[in-house]
Amino acid sequence: MPKLPSRLTLVSAGFTVVALAITGRAAQLQLVEGSTWRQRAAAQHTVRVSLPARRGTLYDRHGVAIAVSQETFAIGVAPRDLHDLRRTAQLLARATGRPLAEVRGALESARAWVEWPGPYSWEQVEPLRELRGVHLQRRLARFYPRPDLAPRIVGRVGSDGRGLSGLERAFDSLLAGRAGYAVMLRDHRGQTYQAPSLPGESPVDGDDVWLTLDAELQEIADRALRAAVAEAGASGGDVVIMEPAGGEILAIASVRQGVAAAGLVSDVFEPGSTAKVFTAAALLRSGRATPFDTVDVEGGTWRLGTRTIHDTHPARLLTLADVIRYSSNVGIAKLGSRLSAVEQYEALRDFGFGTPTGVELPGESPGRLRPVRRWTAESPASLAMGYELAVTPLQLAAAYSVFATGGVLMEPSLLREVRDSRGNLRYAHRPRPVRRVVAPEVAAQLARMLRGVVEEGTGRGAALGNYSVAGKTGTARRVVDGRYEEGRYTASFVGLFPAVEPQLVLVVKIDDPRGDYFGGATAAPVTRSILEAALATPAVYLDRSRLVSRRWGGSGSGGGLEGLSVPRSASAGSRPRVVELPWAGDSVLPAAPRVVPDVAGLGIRAASRVLHQAGFRVRLEGRGRVEGTEPAAGSEVASGTIITVRAVRTESGERSGS
Q1: Angle at 230 between CA 218 and CA 471, to 5 degrees
Q2: Is pTM, for the whole model, over 0.85?
Q3: Residue 506 pairs with which residues in a beta bridge?
Q4: For 457-525, where are the E strands, in sequence order?
Q5: Conformation bin of residue 423: beta by default, left when phi > 0, alpha when psi is -120 to 50
């Protein structure tokens, strides 16, 4: 009988088997599965955190901040990582404004992570940034210093920080920047904190965008439009103000049922009598008429086929200039019949109707201009009077700019300048002519006709004392559910100011005015109100040295475009050809030094106005009362320099600065 192993031998063998099993498992974990387990361990103890980029600031043309990403910080501390607890506690107490004893108590507790959420400004947390164990968590929030300034045009951002609407959406690719990331340590309680030795990538801040808008003129337009809509009992209205030579949009306001809306590029309307000048332009450029050609308007009633055309001001013989001055439907329909359908269509197309202007706002409508093959026998007369044609207020403003530029259609723009986060220039707007529409002498003749409208005709409500104004009134029946509805009208006025070498083109449109619904009575006075307020506000974009009384002469065109050779469209249906103009921007001569004014203690809006009037651009940091500027008050720097305004939030400062 074989000898059985002893108990000791069995125990030893068992330990050996267990040891081999443990060794084998350890080898498997370390050699075979080691990388997998290391990755799992790292995942449990680290987390990748996105670091948001600062969204770029939207400024008006003078540097007034319209939309700002306000940077704040939360403070987190890992007490076990601190080297000098006493000094750290003193700095933290100073930064957070909390009692030193409270801060020391938190740091000396058994907690692995202590947080003060703030928000704290960069000035408050800057002394903490080099302290070991102290971690600054950056937070960004979009802030609108002037929230009532064209809110639907400016737009808003979503919870993810991306543009949702308006200019915030249109320029999102410029403003958004690129987010970075940091790898944070995570303890057993789930708290995270940053370790400098771990990898990461810094965020790239977005570009700053300067708009062509003039904030003061925008506010004037908003206020005048709201008052006019309320006074007329209207359902809404629109205002567009452009600088004709460069195509820059200075103000763009819209009201619907008392609420701001962005219908200036998406909503279309029949322009009515404001379109008569385009038929006059077609007659002059084709040689079919002169300003002095006469037409019998038959006492203001003329039967055309089965249709009867009426005038508001009965007359007999009128010149073409008189037809525009007194807005004769019969006269423009009769004179317009001298044009072929193709000539009439091409003229309207060349003025930009039926195609988008290319402005940077989303959702732009091309309007409506039907091709000749879809016209009826009555279409030529209807188009001459401003019907069977649908336009946006912006298209109408751009078309009227032709009479201020010596006959050149300019591409409208809202984008003036783009700079990166360090202030380096990335883009500067240059005027972009689309095509030459009429010769300079024809543009001058039409501009003189428009001046007569305000001085002697239907647009006298826009007259402005010592300053000459040119323009055209319009009144058109409104289409509701595909039919013209009795008693509903669109009243409009398009103005050029001043009448000689115009610096501004203004379109005012009032929807459904009650009572006196004519454009001369309803829309023209709004133009006068806007101009009066603009002239009384020094910060508004106007070259006042050129606003002296002058005798009408020359081509009457402004903006230095005389003699420019710009091609017309190759065919009636072709897309506009865009060519570059030589840049004629700000002077390259050195700017004279100016003294930075002291704006400490003012609200951000008041401080911005003072600095703009002194000739400086403004960059805003913080909100509330102004604490100081960089360069400091009293410094002598070149005009146009960007002045950084540092503001701090206080209860009173918050009210005055918003």
Answers
A1: 55
A2: no
A3: 241, 495
A4: 470-480, 483-497, 504-511
A5: left
